[in-house]
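Bench log, entry 3. Co-assembly request; chain sequences pasted below exactly as received.
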Amino acid sequence: MRKVTFGCANSLDNFIAREDGSYDWLLHGEEANEVMREFWPKIDTMVMGRKTYDIAQQFAPKPKKKNQKPKTHIGQLKTYVFSRTLEPGERDDVTFLNSDPGAFVRELKQQDGKEICIMAGGDLGCALLEAGVVDEIGFNIHPVLLGSGVPLFHKMSHQIDLELIECRQFKNGCVYVRYRVKN
Amino acid sequence: MRKVTFGCANSLDNFIAREDGSYDWLLHGEEANEVMREFWPKIDTMVMGRKTYDIAQQFAPKPKKKNQKPKTHIGQLKTYVFSRTLEPGERDDVTFLNSDPGAFVRELKQQDGKEICIMAGGDLGCALLEAGVVDEIGFNIHPVLLGSGVPLFHKMSHQIDLELIECRQFKNGCVYVRYRVKN
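Structure output for the full assembly:
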């Protein structure tokens, strides 16, 4: 069965973006880059929320030639984006979906392939945690209380027990925590 | 100026108690006890929220003789409890208050004495953080997503920057983090 990981950067008060969606408070550092460099080769599939997909597109380097596609990890990875508003179907190397995320990822885990990464906010992330299809979670807790914003966690119907795998203190004051989800 | 510390135990999704106020999910361990043993001698004053005060009373060992008071840290420490419902005034070694917590703690910091500890949930804790009177925060992050409960953090009017002082991984899977508040 393929391992499913849900992770992101968050503030200590568990916001993943400001109210207006901005993420100017994110700290960059070699240690976080190293975590990501180790992680990318393990996965071949990405499941994203639509808002996170929009943000990932903004982060992508601008194409140098006209009509050239932006260079992102998308394209090298099989990418699924869940959206309630966009038309389902394949375009721009992405499959857009509006079906039940839990059932979809449960099915995806049964297929052959490498690990699966969930890049999403609280809506999709918590839906998948509640559905019991997430095996690991990892957060890069930033040294800031944003006070308001887009929440990482939403109300869930039941408690989810975790096992701490790793805890690292980064030079920039971030704390990186990784847990096994006891499904 | 006396140092003010706000701290508590929380779930990874930042709840400090279940919806019904219960805290059966709290893990005990020698490392957390050690942190508290180092902390107690530094303080001589405690500022509590009323709900936290009620919980602290439950935690106190039962008196062995009739009419004997429960043995808590309260009594050894000057204790103030903020409550919107209880009658203000001194009783049972405690001063009950319903004034503005920020102004009260700001005044308290100017007085002679040892450090001040805030034992409270999000209501009082965030009011004091917003008022800029908290110097340090420390949380014992438990390896669990409660899914719902009493929130540690409430919406705040502005961002609060932090400096990570300490991050410790406990044997029981808790992560203890301590930050300086950049007021």
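The CA atoms of residues 11 and 146 of chain A lie 6 Å apart. The longest helix of chain A spans residues 30-39.
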